[in-house]
Amino acid sequence: MTMLAAVSIALVSIALCLIFYQQFTSTIRAEIKGRAEMFREMSATQLMTTWRAQPTMVPEDMRLTLIAPDGKVIYDNTVIAEKLGNHADRPEIRQALATGSGASSRYSDTLRRQTCYFAVRLPDGFVLRTAKTSDSIFALFGHALPLVATVILVLAVLSHIAAGRLTNRIVEPINAMRLDDEPMAPPYDELTPLVRAISEQRQRIAAQFAALEERTATIDAIMDSMSEGTLLLDQRGTVVAANPSAGKIFGFAQPVAGRNILELLREPHLARLARQAVNGHRHEETIKRHDRHYRAYFSPVTSGGAALLFLDITESGKAERLRREFSANVSHELKTPLTSISGYAEMLASGMVREEDQAEFLAKIRDESARMLALIEDILLLSRLDEEKSAGALTEVDIGQIATEAAAALADKAAAAGIGLRFVAGKAVSVKGSGSLLNELLFNLLDNAIKYNRPGGMVEIGFGQEDEGGAIISVRDTGIGIPPEARSHVFERFYRVDKSRSKTTGGTGLGLAIVKHIALIHKAEINLTSEVGEGTTVTVIFPAPADV
Ligand code: ADP
To answer: Please, which residues bridge with residue 289 across strands?
Structure first.
């Protein structure tokens, strides 16, 4: 505004000066012409005589010069005529001599003044020149300049104040606008498009933000629920995100974003692999931490940075080892009876066995075959249980009935060993499960209770309802008991406390492993209490129906 005002004033001033100057010079020109015309009819001699006689006839504000036809100055009212040089070359003089009158104007640089001349040829051939000097246009402008400058300055100050006020009046309502209001109210109509644009923009941002938050929450939820330790690094190897599993593996607490990877992994070897991953080198290896084994994956990320993944392979490694051990054990267990069978058969075939002993040999072959069959059946059952990991179709199984069936199947065996079987009165209960598997479980427990008993011993079968609602079965014997150090091992495959006794009783070493497996499938808990020489009690506690 100030600039505009200043420029306008300057331009107007210049224009006024020009008009004024134009007016002024044309007045001067008319004046000197008029005066010259006045004396036109007189001769030079007459003029000089008149002027000398009546000095008042000589105008004070005007220069009068009389020039002879040869250019010599014969009179001048402002300077001594003799001092002036020949004027024949002056344009107005030349023009007057030639045409009768002439005009010209000249500019004096030093005085910054402008002189206008008018010359007329007198009847006697002399030339009369009138002249008047005025300020030049620049001088005129120079005079006006202080005033113009003052006006510009005053205007600048005024326009500055006015502009400030005006700006405040425009900006204040904008500043006072509440951007959170929905819908936003524009302080004046001119702002409506802007307000609408802001409002739309805000809605878009809010939607994008919500989507972003949702995605972040999803990613966080995934990361948090992952059992695999996960670490994300940026291009510089700084941690961007780490999940709680990674924290557990490497023993750090959240938050870790922004921390150095070396600080978290603490192992130079792993940190080096992480750095290499950031630089684009993929790598995987198995590492050990706190007695657990992890498969570690160091993977570069295409957008820069790296992802580190730590998979706990301890269990799968253990399972793999158990499977290998089991196969070796199976081969060994099968080899023993087969070697016996093949030995007896060899002897029978060679005719070395006396006739009266042959029946005994054949009975041994039959017993070993039966043992092998039992073993194979147990192995098959176990591997089926391994595969299925569930009880299959669940039905309501009456525990009392199952126990009666199992006891009946073993009644002869018990009688032969001189062992009594007794049911302890209990409420009839049922569990949801597989009838055949539960039968197998009870059969194995009762079988053991008979096998590892003493002559004249007792086996008590009890079942009932737990306080919380789950079914409970217990098999108690008055047998040899299990030594404390063996108690935690009896459920392992092929584990036997007394190898020779187990073999003579036809045990496979798999009975309790099968029991454990079946219990697991039914989500049941097994308790074993035993006293060497006193007896053993195995209790299976099934969960309440609601928990199954
Ligand atoms: P086995 O076929 O040899 O009986 P199990 O898996 O059923 O195999 O039992 C493992 C071992 O636990 C047995 O060899 C035996 O030493 C011991 N055991 C199992 N039940 C009893 C029990 N009721 N009394 C004493 N020892 C037992």
So the answer is: 292
Model pLDDT, residue 388? 72
- Indicate if the pLDDT at residue 213 is higher than 80: yes
Tell me which DSSP letter residue 125 carries.
Answer: S
Distance of CA 215 to the CA centre of its chain: 10
Which residue's CA is the closest to the ligand 1 atom numbered 12?
A: 490
* pLDDT exceeds 60 at position 472: yes
Give residue for tokens 């600048």: 156
Query: Looking at ligand 1, which atom is closest to the CA of residue 481?
Result: 25
Cβ of 139 less than 6 Å from ligand 1: no
Would you state the pLDDT for residue 392?
A: 66
Using a 6 Å cutoff on CB, does residue 65 contact ligand 1? no
Give the Å distance between the CA of 483 and the centre of ligand 1: 11
Q: In terms of residues, how long is the chain?
A: 548
User: Using CA atoms, how far apart are residues 418 and 412, in angstroms rounded to an integer?
Assistant: 10
Q: Which domains does the chain have, with CATH numbers?
A: 2-140 (3.30.450.20), 180-222 (no CATH), 226-306 (3.30.450.20), 316-384 (1.10.287.130), 388-547 (3.30.565.10)
Cβ neighbors of 399 (< 8 A, separation 6 or more) are 428, 429, 430, 431, 438, 463, 471, 473
Q: How far is CA 536 from the centre of its chain?
A: 61
* Residue 155 Cα to ligand 1 middle (Å): 114
pLDDT at 5: 82
Q: Say whether pLDDT at 296 is over 90.
A: yes
Whether 308 has a pLDDT exceeding 80, the answer reads: yes
**Degrees to nearest 5, angle at CA 119 with 117 and 123:** 165
Whether the CB of 230 sits within 6 Å of ligand 1:
no
Instruction: Judge residue 527's burial from the number of C-beta atoms within 10 Å of its C-beta, 0-12 exposed, 13-18 middle, 19 or more buried.
Output: exposed
89 has a pLDDT exceeding 80: yes
* Position in ligand 1 atom list of the atom nearest CA 538: 23
CB 491 near ligand 1, within 6 Å: no
Residue nearest (by alpha carbon) to ligand 1 atom 13:
496
